[in-house]
Design goal:
Order of helices and strands: EHHEE
Family: Belongs to the phD/YefM antitoxin family.
Shape: flat
InterPro entries: YefM-like_sf (IPR036165)
CATH class of the domain at 2-38: Alpha Beta
Protein name: Prevent-host-death family protein
Organism: Pseudonocardia eucalypti
Mean pLDDT: 84
Low-confidence stretches: none
CATH topology of the domain at 2-38: YefM-like fold
Length: 60
């Protein structure tokens, strides 16, 4: 998957959404650190966060 910055996502959101609709996936980074994978629905991919010991999205 292509890595793009949070700034690139915000600046070119319509084009990135079109690419996702066409099957592209992206890894969004902030300060060079991968934050999230964006993939089209229907594409199967399992993402495991090995840095978290629970399933809460807020860490509580």
């Amino acid at each position: 998957m292509k890595h793009i910055t949070q700034h690139e996502l915000l600046e070119d959101f319509p084009a990135i959404m079109r690419a996702i609709e066409n099957g592209a996936g992206f890894v969004i980074t902030r300060d060079g650190i991968p934050i999230v994978d964006i993939i089209p629905l229907g594409r199967t991919e399992v993402v495991v966060d090995r840095n978290t010991s629970n399933n809460s999205i807020f860490g509580s």
